[in-house]
Specification:
Strand order of the largest sheet: 2-1-3-16-6
CATH topology of the largest domain: D-Maltodextrin-Binding Protein, domain 2
Number of helices: 20
Helix content: 40-55%
Distance between the termini: 34 Å
Largest sheet: 5 strands, mixed
Shape: globular
CATH class of the largest domain: Alpha Beta
Oligomer: single chain
Structural class: alpha/beta
Strand content: 5-15%
Radius of gyration: 23 Å
């Protein structure tokens, strides 16, 4: 393999996330259901002093099926514990769980139809990326409107949730719910491959050029694939979340900035140029990006020391490479795998002037603005997001939660997950909660595929711009 040339001077500038099911809400648009059915303000004081109440929680989880762990936790811990606490206060609480075990698109469509009709569960578990769509459609309302500003803003739990993570349950600067867990993306590297290439075991690049230089050393001195950067349509959302979006954040832009999608801009070309450096410079395996199971194959290759650097989420560490994993277990994971923050193009060139960047996903719980018991529903939601409850949730399977205090305790024995929780989550970004996102994501995947397939940066960027304009309209696309 040959070493990379220098970067073109464009100037400073629970897995890879679940595949986002936006089709459900798109169907609502097609049938004319979008727009919310009730524009009246919620009444925070409705039934505030009730001595007996009934609340319903819904989630796309069901015992013995999809997300069974979450369903079992709700019915086995959350509900009986909360009912017991209310009983101690002299209040009779009836909490019902409405399970679902369907495709995310079907679940999303059902929730949208319920909310549009003024119905549905009191507390609703959703993908964080749906918050913006439901809020823009007036299906859900800011917490301060549903439960009152004092109740919504004075919860002590907010101090334990990073502002970056609060984005996942917010829209246009207002909180619509509470995030329920998150993740983060980093650069993993195989220490044995790095040792063979003469690279340090404590590697931390500070620029894209540092990453290319390390990949070049791996190419020159080992037989391993230097860098796995997800690209193309076969990788699906992994291309967008574990490739394009974090790199774009490293140029100083998010994919949706000031109401406009990034089209053929200098920053998008900068990212596509990086992809060309990798795949045109023989620093990545182009064929792997086009295979149906290419991502899984990249995991296996990394676990066997056949990949030097791989951009992934914490799922790789705790799920794929865990010694007990059935995907690509590494008995020597703790000794053989290193990790580093994803650098911006250059120091200070990342979004918000950051030196390092990341992307995250996660779920959120929101309140139905039509609930008959807003204060009680808010109390139950706070209980579900309390340190006590969250610690119990992850007791047997430690993972990154939305709460700093819980992370500090339950992740203390895992340096990798602690690293993401303490150093990556505070600087992360989330996908935009916009109805067009899924189509935009597909366009991004097609643009990266074009690079892998041999197109020039200019050709790929121009085709991406045209596709984007067809999705959202030219007035909503920024170009350079």
């Amino acid at each position: 393999m040959r070493r990379p040339s220098s970067l073109s001077a464009w100037g400073p500038a629970r897995r890879a996330g679940r595949v986002l099911a936006l089709a459900g809400l798109t169907a609502l648009v097609a049938t004319g259901c979008l727009g919310g059915g009730d524009d009246e303000a919620a009444d925070p004081n409705k039934n505030a002093g009730a001595g007996e109440f009934t609340l319903t929680i819904t989630s796309n989880a069901i015992a013995g099926g999809k997300n069974a762990e979450g369903a079992d936790f709700l019915t086995g811990y959350v509900i009986p514990k909360f009912v017991e606490q209310q009983k101690a206060k002299g209040v009779t609480a009836h909490i019902e769980f409405e399970p679902n075990g369907v495709d995310d698109a079907e679940y999303k469509s059902k929730i949208g139809l319920d909310l549009e009709a003024g119905k549905g569960a009191d507390i609703i578990d959703i993908d964080g990326i749906w918050v913006g769509e439901f809020a823009a459609s007036n299906f859900i309302k800011p917490l301060e409107e549903v439960v009152g500003a004092d109740a919504a803003n004075n919860w002590d739990g907010w101090g334990q949730i990073q502002p970056s993570v609060q984005q996942n349950a917010s829209y246009e600067g207002k909180r619509y719910g509470i995030p329920s867990g998150t993740d983060g993306r980093v650069l993993y590297f195989h220490k044995e491959v790095f040792a063979e290439a003469g690279l340090p075991a404590d590697w931390q690049p500070t620029s894209w050029q540092d990453v290319l230089d390390a990949a070049g050393a791996v190419a020159d001195k080992t037989d391993a694939i230097p860098l796995q950067l997800n690209a193309g349509t076969a990788m699906g959302e992994a291309t967008t979340m574990q490739g394009f979006l974090p790199m774009l954040a490293g140029t100083g832009k998010e994919i949706l900035t000031d109401g406009k999608w990034q089209g053929d801009t200098p920053q998008v070309r900068q990212v596509l140029d990086f992809y060309q450096q990798v795949y045109g410079g023989e620093l990545g395996d182009a064929t792997l990006q086009q295979e149906a199971k290419g991502r899984d194959k990249s995991f296996e290759a990394f676990s066997k020391g056949r990949v030097g650097i791989l951009l992934e989420s914490d799922y790789l560490w705790r799920g794929v490479l865990s010694p007990s994993s059935d995907v690509a277990p590494m008995p020597d994971r703790d000794e053989a795998v290193g990790w580093a923050k994803i650098p911006a193009f250059a120091p200070g060139a990342g979004v918000g002037g950051q030196d390092f960047v990341s992307m995250s996903g996660g779920a959120a719980q929101v309140l139905n603005p039509n609930t008959a018991y807003p204060q009680q529903a808010w109390e139950l939601m706070r209980f579900m997001a309390s340190a006590e409850t969250v610690k119990e949730l992850v007791r047997d399977s430690p993972r990154i939660t939305q709460r700093d205090d819980v992370n500090a305790e339950v992740l203390a024995g895992d340096p990798m997950l602690s690293f993401i929780a303490s150093q990556v989550v505070p600087l992360t970004r989330f996908r935009p909660g916009d109805l067009a996102y899924l189509q935009v994501s597909t366009a991004i995947q097609e643009a990266t595929y074009a690079i892998v397939d041999g197109s020039s940066v200019e050709e790929a960027a121009a085709a991406y711009q045209k596709t984007l304009e067809g999705i959202v309209g030219g007035e909503r696309v920024a170009s350079g």
